[in-house]
Task: structure prediction
Amino acid sequence: MVRFRGPLKVACCWSRRMCFRIEEGILWCMQRHRGKFVGLLHPFSALVLLSLIGFLFVYELWYVLPLLTDPQGIWHKLNWLLAIYTVFNILGNWWLGFMCNTAVESLPPKRQHPSAGEAHLWHYCTSCQKLVPPRSWHCRLCNQCILKRDHHCTFSGNCIGHNNQRYFLGFLFHLSFGSGQALVYNAMLAWKSKAFLVTDPLLFMNENHSNDPDFNWKYTVASMLKLNFFLFMVPLGMFVLQMLMVYRNSTCYRILDRSYDVGWQQNFNIVLGNRRFWTFFSPTISSPLPNDGTQWFQKQHV
Ligand SMILES: [Zn+2]
Ligand SMILES: [Zn+2]
Result:
C-alpha cells in the first residue's frame, strides 16, 4: 500500500499540473488572439443559430403544417400567427441581449467607484486595474468586468450579466417553446405517416423496407422528429438551469453560492425587473431593475 502511494501521488500532481498548464495555455492563446477568436466565433455561432431557426420555421410552416391542417382554415392561420410571435420573441430577446451593455463601464461614472463605506466590499481586477463591484468578474473574451457575471454566451455574442439576463431567459424560453411547437407538428406527422419507428435501428434490421414505396418519405419524417427532439431538449435544459440560478440568486460562474439568496420572489425581481414574468410576453416590455448591479445584500453566515 505504502509503496504505491508515492508514485500515485506524483502521477496525480503531474496530471493536475499538466491540466493547469493546458488551461493556462488555452487562456493565454485566447487572450493573445482575442480579436480574431471573437471575430470568428461570434459570427459563426450566430450563423448556426439563425440557420437552425430559419430551417425549422420554413420546414414546419411550409412543409409540415399544410399536411396537418387545412391551409384555408382558421387553425392553420392561428398556428402561423403563433410561430411568427415566437420567432419575434426569440430574435427580439437575442438582439436586445446582444446590444445590452452589462459591463462595469456601462455604469454612470460616479457609480464606477465605491461609495463611502463600500470599498471593503469591492475587489481589485488585475486586468482592468481598478476596484470593481461585488459579483463582477472579468471576462477574457469581452476583456472587461461584467456586473453580476453569469457566463459568456457565444450565441448572444456577449456576456450574460446583471443588465441582460432577462433577455437571455426570454430567448431560452421562446427557443424552447418554438422548438416544442415544432416537435408537436413533427410528432403528429410521424403518427399520421406511421413513421414513428422507421429510423429505429432494431426495427430497421428486422423489417424489409424495400417493398414500402413510402420508405424514403417516412425515413425523412422520423429523422426530422429526432433532430427536433434534440433541438428542443438543449434550450429547455439551459432554460431550466437558468431558472434554477435565478430562483437561488446564484450564477453559473459560482453555481453553488447561495449567499445572495433573498427569497425567490425578490430573486426573480432582481433579474426580470418589476414586471417580472410579463417580460416573457415581449422583449419590448419595459421592466426597470431594482438595483444597478453594484450593491448586493449577502446573507450572514451562522
Ligand atoms: Zn476586469
Ligand atoms: Zn464575455
